Amino acid sequence: MSTPSQSSPTGAVPTPASATLLKPLEVAGFWLAVALPFLYLPLIIMGPQSVPVQTALAALIGVHAATLLVGHRHRTN
User: Fold this and answer.
1) pLDDT category, 60, cuts 50, 70, 90?
2) What separation in angstroms does the CA of 19 have from each of 24, 47, 77?
3) Whole domain around residue 67: which residue ranges?
4) 44 close to 37: Cβ distance less than 8 angstroms
5) Distance between CA 54 and CA 49 in Å, rounded?
6) Above pLDDT 90, what percent of the chain?
7) Which UniProt keyword terms apply here (predicted)?
8) Contact assessment for residue 62 and residue 39, using Cβ atoms and an 8 Å cutoff
9) Per the domain annotation, does 31 fall within a domain?
10) Among 63, 58, 55, 59, which Cα is nearest to 33's?
């Protein structure tokens, strides 16, 4: 015996809730990863000589790495 398919009346396969919830995070992560390098310029031009600038640069690099991890699966299609 076969089991009935769980597709919707339109024929579309239902998307898991986790994929639906993660998609906006992937999109945001991707575009933040694209935009964040522009924030490096002022910090590098000022020169990382003071502790607050060094801290900001280190935090920015950490946030950029996190956005790269979150957004690396984003596809535009």
Assistant:
1) very high
2) 9, 42, 15
3) 22-73
4) no
5) 7
6) 25
7) Membrane, Transmembrane, Transmembrane helix
8) no
9) yes
10) 63
In a domain, 55, yes or no: yes
Residue 8 falls within a domain, yes or no? no
Question: Both tokens of residue 35?
Answer: 């935009």
CA-based end-to-end distance of the chain? 37
DSSP structure class, residue 11: S
b/e 7-40 (16+ beta carbons within 10 angstroms → b)? eeeeeeeeeeeeeeeeeeebeebbebbeebeeee
Looking at residue 2, its pLDDT comes to 55
The answer to whether position 29 is within a domain reads yes
Number of domain units in the chain: 1
Q: Does this model's pTM top 0.70?
A: no
Task: Look at residue 6 and give its three-state secondary structure.
Answer: coil
